[in-house]
Amino acid sequence: MELSKNTNVFQRNKQKFIILLLAIAVATAMANTATGGGAVGVNFGTIENSYSTGSIWVNSLSAQSTIGGLVGQNQGGTITNSFFDSQRSGRNDNDGRGTPLTTEQMRQQATFAQWNLHSIWRMDAQMYNGEPFLRAFYPLIHAQFTIEGQRATVSPASSIFVLPYTGIMLHTGSPIQPTVQIEYNGQSLTLDTDFRLEFENNTNANNTTPARMRIIGMGDYAGITLGYNFFITNQRGITLGNVSAIPNQTHTGTPIRPDVVIRDFNNTVILQEGVDYELNYTNNTNIGTATIEIIGIGDIYTGFRTVNFSIVPPVDTYQINAQNTTISGIPTSVAFNGQAHIPSITVNHTPHGLLVENEH
User: What is the pTM of this model?
Assistant: First the structure.
């Protein structure tokens, strides 16, 4: 962060700028001979509920009078409930340009008692060094989601917006509302206290447009919204799913059971073995063509289908040494003719009858 005389000015003339949320400075601030601060160079307005934890590097001793841990110069502005880490910044100014605190104090909730830690900010010892961060940036990376009846436990959620899973529910004619269990750091969250659910299109069967469930955080989890899609369908044949091609399998002398991937609903749902289908393997030991029978099970899938895969011999790799090996075809001399000479060479490795010709 390069701070200069005209950098980080939050108000000029009569225009007012109040920092309420996004004033978190964590980068290294560098100042040469001009004004600089951990977050703000020159303040003419209002700074509120802000902090800086970055280090500050000063190029010239003559500039230190205009360098601050949070604000370089305060030109008639107001600064309230705002702090900086005196240990990491190397600054200790305590003249109204921000309050200096130790690193430990920056991680204590008591320090930020005047901040809105209920719905705007959050503090978590496992995230952002234990210092305050906006709830909008809270990814719930330690949470485990279980959608009952929906074939999956999502742990962790890969996005703060959409769970990476689309499920299937059997059409009943009534609104379908999957049960959700959420656990965070070993603590179970409570429906209608820590989160609530909203649904769309969750009654009629539709094989092209999924129903949608929103998990909306409340209380300490306010600001978090997760989306979960699921298809509502009548019973359907397992033949409607798309089976991914199974690559050739190398012969081992023992039964081979390659994984099977089946997708349905325009390839948006991956079916689960033991929930949607079961597998029977035949002719899956010897070299040749093996068969997998896929049998629909559970509430949704019925019928069966078969797919094949090939078992192929292994590619032999031999280490050729001087013993039992003869090489022939290398001339002792050739007449110069201005062109490249490519002799015909034969390598015979007796134990395996291996012949290699014209390999250079």
Answer: 0.50
